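Justification of computing resources. Each target in the renewal requires a structure prediction run like the one illustrated here; the chain below, 123 residues long, is used simply to show the kind of job we budget for.
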Amino acid sequence: MAKTILIVDDSSSLRTVVKLSLARAGYEVLEAGDGKEGLAQLDKLAKVHLIVSDVNMPNMDGITFLTHVKQHPRHKFTPVIMLTTEGQDAKKEQGRAAGAKAWILKPFNPPQLLDAVSKLILP
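Resulting structure tokens:
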């Protein structure tokens, strides 16, 4: 059975690039346009194996989204990769404190993302 990954990003073009990369690698991919949509997706799903989230989004930013995910009993152990333009150490520290397992800067290269995903999703 394919592992499920949720992409949360307000850029539909970026979601498409990430989705194509992950789908080609055999993952089932779901999308959300911001943190609120991401939480709504998670409420409908029994299991998500990994989340890839942007930091800067309307309605609910990635750090707030991550904080909510980690409070959810069903998803608190789901690994989260932050895929963002934010490179400042303070932002990275906020992400780590909220529970992010990896921090990848945009523009990203698909092999780098797939490498991080394969390390965080158990076979």
